[in-house]
Automatic annotation (TrEMBL):
Entry's family note: Belongs to the CFA/CMAS family.
Gene3D superfamilies named in the record: Vaccinia Virus protein VP39
A molecular function (GO) term: methyltransferase activity
UniProt GO BP: lipid biosynthetic process; methylation
Keyword Translocase: no
Listed name of the protein: Class I SAM-dependent methyltransferase
Annotated TM spans: none
Amino acid sequence: MSALANPGASAQAIQFHYDIGNSFYNLWLDRSLTYSCALWDGHDTLEAAQMAKIDYHIEKSGARGQQRVLDIGCGWGATLNHLVRTAGVAQATGLTLATQQAAHIAQQEWPGVDVRVESWSDHSPTMPYDAIISVGAFEHFAKLDQSPEEKIEGYRGFFRRCHEWLPPGGCLSLQTMSYENSSREDFSPFFASQIFPESDLPRLSEIAGASEHLFEIVSLRNDRHHYARTSLEWRRRLLQRRAEAVALVGEEAVARYDKYLHLWAIGFHTGTMGLLRLQLRKLETPRRLH
Ligand SMILES: C[S@@+](CC[C@H](N)C(=O)[O-])C[C@H]1O[C@@H](n2cnc3c(N)ncnc32)[C@H](O)[C@@H]1O
């Protein structure tokens, strides 16, 4: 399997955001350093809601009790840790483009966990995976300056790879933000240049189109209100530790994160943006491979 060109954000663009400093994220994320929308159904603490989200993806991907599971965009490893510690998975492999995230995971020495600083587009496993999870990374798999056709082709490349890596009937559990009552023309220049450079959000129709004939969509939730609540909680925690945050990354960066989390909460609350959780099952004999 030859490497593809990474159609999304470069390693440098990813590191601009995620490598600002592990101690900074440690101040305002939950203890597991999960950095994606939580699942608040029946939970009132960020910790519990993040664990519920991880459990949700473990169930939807069919990862429980499996030998080999892949986490594409593994962050600081909360899902990898949970897979081997509580879900009976023998080997959990994580991909990230952020070097500080990978260093953090390597430092934990979690048995059965392996992390690589590698894009999904360069990944070339020697054996298939039993299940795949990808949470909060798909937002980085396309760029704003791509044509609509290039954008879909990039996404299709991702789904093709996941299809190749899974066994018959295997599942990918995918979570991503999306454009809802908005489009890429509405993507704020503040986010594009100062928060998530080289990134663009998908629409649900683009995910459905790009995965067609490769995966069937088994379940879908739009939990945008869960992201409004998660963003507000992150912002509350950041402001509570503001002085320490400023000492770590400076006034300007803290003001940027404060503004981004505030705008995000509004975007999810009003339905400008959505939060999709999709369970995708591999089609065994696609009639047409794109
Ligand atoms: C918002 S974080 C989500 C982390 C984690 N899944 C969580 O829920 O806490 C996005 C992750 O996607 C990773 N990422 C972005 N582009 C990637 C790519 N092309 N290949 C692999 N990982 C990528 C980043 O390095 C980062 O770890």
